[in-house]
Design goal:
Two copies of one chain form a homodimer. Chain A is of the alpha/beta class. Chain A is about 25% helix and about 25% strand.
Chain lengths: ~250, ~250
């Protein structure tokens, strides 16, 4: 049995049972064949980690493929384990994440990393995230529209596009969709110290609160203003701006 | 007691007991005050993961600070737990990693992520890695020279520099130091299937072999040719090249 519909590989970092991925699956299944390969358990802030030190297990959860590893593991496994996909997917989608991935979050996010893992392997990819208490149903409808237009667009030559989409959660309706750049976001930087019942110290990283200044054209400001934000993410690892400094360090005396 | 020497925060992803970090500590202690805050256990391929789902513990191992978390956790904790550092460090250093971090490795590497965590928090940073069976002593001497010149250089305005340094391991002597861009590196992409003693399937990610084409100016080629490679890494998350495509997706019909 073959299908002429596009093939989408769908993952996330909240785990295979999360409402965000279930809603996105239902929305995308209307326009494409969608194969879910997602983490068995929550993998927030796991960034682009791969599991190399221990082996992985596969399970079916409600008919969806689940892997007891990271989001990047899931994309890797899906692409190289033949049973999962009938052919190379046309698009990798990740999300809908439970919580924003704005600003510096893109470095830490497992949701973004799943999409990036697809793009690094040559497949266009989109990460979707929504703020807390947002409507996944509303986000799913807009995500489907974005994916539909993306699948219909002529892709430029070169590296595959990697898009980061965030849905504002603080308004009843989105005001529209905006193309943005990544803004600056800061967290409560702190360590919370505690003691266990045996009197031994342990500590938690940071506070949950994030802050940003208003900056035109950024993802943070678009979402503040009630717009869905689409940011194209870079896959260029080299910084041109620091080449001269690096050159200074190549002194022959080394 | 105060010191006029530079202050370096040193971490890695192989763990606090690894030979690479111990060698680098000894080399850098000759030119700076060096505080080690490193993972308690190996954290290879943990990328930029932060530990948010469980709390962390601190231990002293041979007088060095060890945290039972990721490389990025270590930098975070060092900067926000006041006992660890007498003041804000002048430089974050990571390594020497046991194994190259070339090409696409920079996305997966915990060594690079520790340095990037420093740079994201405004502190210049360098990641050092050496190929398998390389001489850490030789690498330590060259690393000290690079750090010394770096500390003496006038840093450009804007984002702090983030440098990725690799030492070739297949020659008796380095031929010199070169500034490079990140090359393209591919791994044996495969899944290795096994069965446990109870007959249940498990699998490992990929093979260990990496390949690359010869490309002038890249980190992979410099190291092939016997040169120490220095690549400045980008901290710009937005891709200018796909802005037009993203714009197409912001259709008012969304």
């Amino acid at each position: 049995m073959t299908s002429s519909r596009p093939l989408i590989l769908l993952s996330n970092d909240d785990g295979v049972a999360a409402k965000g991925i279930r809603t996105l699956h239902a929305a995308l299944a209307a326009i494409a064949d969608v194969v879910v390969v997602a983490p068995l358990s929550e993998q927030s802030a796991k960034s682009h980690a791969l599991t190399l030190a221990h082996p992985l297990r596969h399970r079916l959860v409600d008919g969806f493929h689940a892997i007891d590893g990271t989001p990047a593991d899931c994309i890797y496994v899906a692409l190289y384990r033949e049973q999962f996909l009938p052919r190379r997917p046309d698009l990798v989608v990740s999300g809908i994440n439970h919580g924003y991935n704005l600003g510096v979050d893109v470095y830490y996010s497992g949701t973004v990393a799943a999409a990036r893992e697809g793009a690094l392997r040559g497949i266009p990819a989109i990460a979707f995230s929504s703020g807390p208490q947002g409507s996944f149903e509303a986000a799913g409808v807009v995500a489907r529209g974005i994916v539909e237009r993306f699948l219909g667009a002529a892709l430029p030559a070169g590296r595959p596009p990697l898009l980061n989409v965030n849905f504002p959660a603080h308004r009843a309706e989105y005001l529209g969709v905006r193309t943005t750049r990544i803004g600056r976001r800061r967290y409560d930087e702190s360590i919370v110290l505690r003691h266990d019942p045996r009197g031994n110290e342990y500590f938690w990283l940071g506070g949950p609160n994030a802050y940003h200044e208003r900056e035109d054209g950024t993802d943070t400001t678009a979402v503040d203003d009630g717009y869905v934000s689409i940011t194209p993410l870079s896959l260029e690892p080299t910084a041109g701006e620091h080449a001269e400094l690096a050159e200074l360090l190549t002194n022959e005396g080394a």
